[in-house]
Design a protein that fits this description.
79 residues, mainly alpha
Length: 79
Amino acid sequence: MHSAYWTKAAAIRSIHYHGAASFTLMVWNHLSTLEDEIRFIWPMRNGYILKWLYIFLRYFLLFMQMVTWDGAANFDVMM
C-alpha cells in the first residue's frame, strides 16, 4: 500500500511540476509576443475569421491551463 501511495504521490507531483513549467512558458510566450500581436492582429477588421481564430486559440488554451491546473491541485492521492 505504501509503495502505491508514494508512486501516485510522485506522479501527481510530476504533473504539478510539468504544469507549472508549461504555464510559465505559455505566459512568457504571451508576454514576449504581445507587442507583435498588438501591432498585427488587433488592427485587423472584426469580420476577419483568422483574427478571432488566433485570439481564441491563444487565450482559450491559457485559460484552460489555469482552470485544469487548479483542478489538478485538488486531486486525491488515495485513489
